[in-house]
Amino acid sequence: MITYKILWPELPNIKVPVLHRVDYDYTDNLVEWRRQSLKEWEIRRWCEANCRAAYYFHPGWTNEKFIEFEDDQDAVFFSLRWI
Hints:
The chain has helices at residues 30-50, 72-82, and strands at residues 4-6, 15-17, 20-26, 55-57, 64-69. The chain is α+β, with helices and mostly antiparallel strands. It has one domain. The longest helix has 21 residues, at 30-50. The mean pLDDT is 90.
């Protein structure tokens, strides 16, 4: 289920989905980054096959590895599988 919130009370018809952030790794050196690239590829394929709603991966310049999910259930299933 996607949870929505209203950011502007004067515009009650505009709702924004609440994003659920799930951290799955952290990389601070090049060797770890190379090892993680295969895992990231597998995670992307898993998300394409199993997520019902939109999801957003971490920016490429950060050392933190996380995904933000719009759907509550997608976030829970991802956590159960990859954490």
